[in-house]
Amino acid sequence: MAHSSRLEDLYQDHNGWLNGxxxxxxxxxxxxxxxxxxxFVRVLSARELPPLAEPRAFLTTIAKRVLSNHFRRQDLERxxxxxxxxxxxxxxxxxxxKAIILQTLVELDQLLDALPSAVRRAFLLSQVDGLSHAEVAxxxxxxxxxxxxxxxKALLRCYFAL
Length: 162
What we know:
Elements: H1 2-26, H2 29-45, H3 55-85, H4 95-113, H5 117-127, H6 133-140, H7 144-161
Helix pairs in contact: 1-2, 1-3, 2-3, 5-6, 5-7, 6-7
């Protein structure tokens, strides 16, 4: 009960401030409100609310992560839509297919983001660019054995995420 009461107090005391902070960064009141709610959802999903000497600093830290994810998703969506413009109209996916593909791309991006950059780069060169192990090795300046280890690590991450 104490957790929900503390969370309610945090929300009532700082939601307006957080909305303003996000609005200044986004320039859009609707997006700011959405991201403020996402921030409080993250706080709510935590098992325990730590003692907060500086509640605004705590909320700012979480909101920065939420904001970063928001911008990352926007960039990913923009790149996906740009790629779709390159397709002939008859091959363009339906709106439902676009939404499913975009959600899949976001989830894959989150999975890959947790990997070391060399592993992520090897995976993308192999799976997206279609390079062979030898070509990936040349591109990254590493051995073929290292490429195979990197790809195994990335594929295991994707497999276990299912």
